[in-house]
Amino acid sequence: METPDVSVVVPVYNTMPYLTRCLTSLVEQTIGTARMQIIAVDDGSTDRSGRELDRFAARYPDLFTVVHQANSGGPAGPCNRALDLATGRYVFFVGSDDHLGPQALHRLVDAADSYGSDVVLGKVVGVNSRHIYQDIFARNEVEISLFDSPLPRSLANTKLFRRDMLERYRIRYPEDLPIGSDLPFTLEACYRARRISVLADYDFYFAVRRFSATNITYLSRHARRLRTVEANVAFVAGLIEPGKQRDAVLAYRFDHEIAGLVEDDLLQLDRATQQLVHDGLGRLVAEHLSDDIADRLGPETRIRLALTRDGTLDDLLAVIRQDAEGGVPATVVEGSRRYAAYPGFRDPERHLPDACFDVTTVPDWAAKLDATGLAWEDDDRGERVLTVTAHTPVPQLAALGAETLTVSAEEIPADTRIIATGTAGTTVRIRFSAADLLAGSDPTGQRRIVSAQLGTFDPDRALGAASANGAAGSAALRAPRLDGTVPLVRRRGARLYVITPTRDSSGRLMISVVPVTPDRVTARLRQLIRRR
Glycosyltransferase 2-like domain: which residues (predicted)? Predict the structure, then answer.
């Protein structure tokens, strides 16, 4: 048998009916079945997934290798088992609830052969409003660096890897991590790669958010996530020498996984888990949060992480509660220094360092806004617009260096105007065109975080605000006391879409554009029935 061009690895655990779509997209690849090997490992599924794998294997006996095993608790074991069986020149990993565009493997293999690449990223898009960072897919790139590109933000394993590189360095998944095991695998592969390429001109990979949200990532809890973060940070520290390269990778870990552990939902946890998170993150911050990394973080993340190191759990919870329930705190200006007057700031009983609250060098502090009103309105041309009213306690934004304030739903800019200033603060009117939101969204649905930034609109900074609490240079709008508004239904081609402003679990304002499909309607009805 000739060596296949690509071995496709599919770890499987209870993903029907999504699995059928996944496998169908593989057998229909334009690269042709003669150039492929599909290795599917059933990790003790209790639904019909195992039988579905056997059905495809019976139909395509020369294409499929199916392994059935007892449940291992995560995808790492199945991926390693498949890697040991792989014979292709390249390896590609597919989640069993996701699927590929028809030309995906053909294009990826051709690019790797043409460029001599060890790793190739193909554009990933979200389905059912699953959020996927898109900054790495801004354009086709023959070669990118791990250390001066957005790649550290996109270390999922949904990439093409040269197999002999994986074998040369014996790169495998850590099987002691039930979640997040693809990060160290992908990171080491990218670190060892001679060339990493990006293909952004085709939708290669469709990452599906299940309507039931029952996969292992969505079900993970804070204690398990903390353990994963600790293991991954330790892996980075062991792989990359201290300095700017390590910081470039760790900055994204702090901005995403670590910041995600101190979001507003921490308030809902039991005291023991809150303390576990506070203490664990405090150790990571003390050891690994350099000034260079801190400068890349948004204000909420920077302040909250400082309090895991320098404050008590109650200090941290008070700051989170202020953001979640009270809104933007006042700013104390003393000469050239500025401080966020959160609870605990200069409280003689708390003894917290001023440095925890120092926002002097945080460029987006003046852009931190609370949404106070939402409404669908008609603009001067009679077109529907989403009007967001927002407020900051800062009387004059210019006093904090805010010469221009712009707001966007990631790459979609809004019409932004300051409509009132005074001792009570500044009020801003933000308008998004329904037509722009619809036209700019993926046909399968998309959610965007609304953020503000100083200066003229910069889409790169706006995309960065999609991180846990807003990347440096932009700030996600919060809606702490907002109940929402009525969704707007609009047609795009032959399909109806629903545009809905909503809040995520950390109180950030998001705009969701989703297609009306039978599966979505059925899932919604099931949710309503369960609530009764």
Answer: 7-128
Rounded CA gap, 368 and 474, in Å? 8
Backbone phi and psi for residue 371, each to the nearest 5 degrees, phi listed first: -75, 130
Q: How many helices (H) and strands (E) does the chain have?
A: 17, 24
| Residue 440: C-alpha distances to residues 256, 276, 448, 509 (Å) | 25, 41, 11, 18
Bridge-based pairing of strands 6-12 and 36-43 is parallel
Q: In the β-sheet with 384-392, what is the strand arrangement from edge to edge? A: 370-378, 384-392, 425-433, 415-422
* Measured distance CA(145)–CA(138) in Å, rounded: 15
The Cα–Cα gap between 33 and 175 comes to 31
Buried b (16+ CB within 10 A) or exposed e, 288-323: bbbeebbebbbbbbbbbbbbbbbbbbebbbbbbbbb
**pLDDT-flagged residues of the chain (< 70):** 1, 211-220, 363, 397-403, 457-473, 484, 518-532
Q: Is 397 helix (H, G, I), strand (E, B) or coil?
A: helix
Q: What is the reported pTM?
A: 0.84
DSSP 395: S
Cα Rg of the chain, angstroms: 24
pLDDT digits (tens, 9 = 90+) for 382-413: 999 999 999 888 777 655 555 678 899 988 99
Q: Which tens digit of pLDDT belongs to each residue from 66-94?
A: 999 999 999 999 999 999 999 999 999 99
Of residues 452, 216, 174, the one with CA closest to residue 328: 452
**Residue 225 in contact with residue 193, Cβ under 8 Å?**
no
DSSP-derived 3-state class of residue 425? strand
